[in-house]
Specification:
By secondary structure, this protein is of the alpha+beta class.
Length: 630
């Protein structure tokens, strides 16, 4: 049998090297399958059973396989070997110009690392194991898809490295992540280089290892936010005019590495790091966190300050003060009427308070126009002023200029487009208020009603889903401001007015018996005096945040603080600073007279502070969700 096999093989080799043989060649058979060029069959033993044997093709390592000259792709196409590294058959595929595995795995990808794209993340501390925060991001340019692996190590090795692997399913630029493994063994700067499945590379990066973490405490109460902050304006480290930093004092207990930072919040973040030395222990020092990024919002917001100290106070919450962009306002009101926003004392006061006192940080708040007639105001708002520009805020205390149907409809349209309106009802303007509120909150929502007797005990007859009512003989009444310390108008930049008082000084004031959905009551119409029998749910001062609408049931007169009259002018401002002041005013006694004599019912009213808190709220609403883009 061996002789037959040997002669058969020799014949086959001779024939295949000499000429094209038209018949199949058989090994261990004289009748090869005619559909084959070579038919290798098993050898049978003396009993006719198959001797279990196979055929073996060249076996080699992947390195040996790669040394085969496959320059001529057509000649190499379909070449097959057994890869002992992979334990699988590999064949050469001409169209992909690579060795492919019969086990289903892809070949190695071909790629290069973009050296300028390397980004190291995390803080590296001696004897501290790396975790999910320690990684390297880099961009690679893939020219052939397939399996990839990259390892970054330092020389000499410092106990940690970065590893990444996966499959590129497409060519082009890809971002890969190498995850940290191990922990640094020494405080030093480590130089890293790459080794990859696509070969080595000239790229490198370095990491500085920090000493053990310091123990220290953040003194949050002493934190100061430095510099100016404006939407869409990048933060700066330049000293001119001021760098954007957070200054905070720390009490140091143990020397070591200090890292204080914030998460990215509304587009900005702050960072500081240092090494506290032995001489710093037991001292308190002020550190400055440098700001980065660009604010994306138009309102103040808190940012969390975090430290790496394992003990003591290691977290603070600090408010970033955003400067509002330049905005405009318009006034509807008779010139120098003490009950309107067109009165010099009121207009000059809020402008002075905003610009000089700096309580509300705004780049500028400029009057776009003022109107002394309802018809002119309606035209200006409806057509837009100066090329279609709408005022960000309209200030309208309606004393002397009641809103007719046209002005009410136009104001409602302005508010529904996002305009901000602070409105005060004039003397006996119930019908006009009805038009305005129904235009803003829905047709038919408000009807009419009257309370005429002195003690407010009469039943209010009204129409509409909700009711309006005029309170006759309400001259010089005081109303308690609700205790809502988290409300942006009640507790605004000009003071927390919770539990204090607002006063009205006209004969008829207009209140609502039910607020529109989403509204906030500031003052109930109920008080212990002449309104003691009115429902506390009825509201004389209120606002609706989503509609940008603020309502006063009466236009209170204004004066400087040099006027000491206790009967007139419940709204008082300091003539020099424009800041609001309180004063004793009004009465709660059950009397039908409006005597100026002091009586036990008068209260200290805070009308000016409530008005300026309302203006601050209006500016914030205009900047965040107003009619003009900011």
């Amino acid at each position: 049998m061996r002789k037959v096999f040997f002669i058969t093989v020799l014949n086959w080799l001779y024939l295949t090297t000499s000429f094209v043989y038209s018949q199949s060649i058989g090994i261990n058979t004289e009748n090869p399958n005619q559909l084959t060029d070579l038919d290798v069959q098993n050898v049978l033993n003396s009993q006719g059973d198959t001797i279990p044997r196979g055929i073996m093709i060249p076996r080699m390592t992947e390195t040996q396989r790669n040394s085969i000259n496959v320059t001529n792709k057509s000649t190499a196409n379909s070449l097959i070997i057994y890869n002992i590294d992979e334990d699988c058959y590999n064949y050469y595929m001409r169209s992909e110009n690579e060795w492919r595995s019969l086990c289903g795995t892809l070949g190695n990808a071909v790629f290069t690392v973009s050296c300028g794209s390397i980004s190291v993340n995390g803080t590296y501390i001696i004897n501290t194991a790396t975790d999910g925060t320690h990684y390297v991001l880099l961009t690679v340019d893939v020219t052939k898809k397939g399996i990839w692996s990259i390892v970054a190590t330092s020389n000499p090795n410092n106990g940690y490295s970065f590893v990444g692997q996966g499959v590129f399913t497409s060519a082009g630029q890809q971002t890969v992540k190498l995850v940290g493994q191990g922990k640094p063994a020494a405080v030093r700067t480590d130089a890293f280089s790459f080794d990859s499945s696509s070969g080595g590379g000239a790229c490198n990066f370095s990491i500085s290892i920090k000493p053990q973490v310091a123990i220290y405490a953040l003194h949050c109460a002493n934190a100061v936010v430095n510099g100016t902050y404006k939407k869409n304006t990048p933060l700066t480290s330049s000293p001119n005019p001021n760098p954007n930093t957070i200054s905070i004092s720390v009490g140091i207990s143990t020397a070591g590495y200090c890292e204080i930072k914030t998460p990215v919040t509304n587009g900005i973040w702050f960072e500081y790091s240092d090494i506290f030395l032995a001489g710093d222990v037991g001292t308190t020092k002020t550190v400055n966190l440098q700001g980065y990024g660009t604010p994306t919002v138009n309102y103040d917001f808190p940012i969390t300050v975090l430290s790496n100290s394992p003990e003591r106070n290691n977290i603070c919450s600090i408010t970033i003060p955003i400067i509002f962009p330049p905005m405009t306002y318009a006034i509807i009101g008779l010139a120098n009427d003490a009950h309107t926003w067109n009165a010099d004392k009121r207009k000059n006061s809020f402008v002075t308070a905003l610009s000089q006192a700096g309580v509300v940080k705004i780049q500028s708040f400029t009057m776009l126009w003022n109107s002394t007639t309802a018809n002119n105001a309606e035209t200006l708002i409806r057509n837009g002023y100066n090329g279609g520009q709408y005022p960000d805020v309209v200030l309208y205390f309606a004393d002397g200029i009641n809103p007719d149907i046209n002005l009410s409809a136009t104001l409602a349209n302005y508010v529904n487009k996002g305009g901000v309106l602070i409105f005060g009802a004039g003397n006996g303007t119930q019908a006009e208020v009805k038009y305005l509120l129904n235009g803003i909150f829905g047709s038919g929502m408000y009807g009419n009603g009257v309370v005429s007797n002195i003690d407010g005990s009469i039943t209010i007859n009204m129409t509409g889903t909700f009711g309006l009512a005029v309170r006759s003989m309400s001259y010089r009444n005081d109303y308690r401001i609700n205790t809502l310390p988290n409300d942006q108008i009640i507790n605004g930049p000009f003071g927390d007015l919770s539990g204090k008082y607002w006063g009205e000084d006209e004969g008829n004031s207009v209140f609502v018996t039910q607020l529109p959905p989403g509204s906030t009551q500031i003052c109930s119409v109920n008080n212990p005096g002449t309104n003691k029998n009115l429902n506390p749910d009825y509201s004389i001062v209120w606002y609706n945040d989503s509609k940008n609408f603020m309502y006063f049931g009466d236009c209170a007169a204004v004066e400087w603080d040099t006027n000491t009259s206790k009967t007139d002018y419940p709204t008082i401002y300091n003539q020099a600073t424009g800041l609001p002041k309180s004063k004793p005013f009004g009465y709660w006694v059950t009397t039908s007279t409006a005597s100026g004599a002091s009586n036990p019912g008068e209260q200290y009213v805070c009308n000016g502070a409530l008005e300026l808190n309302a203006v601050a709220w209006a500016i914030q609403r205009a900047a965040v969700a107003g009619i003009n883009p900011h």
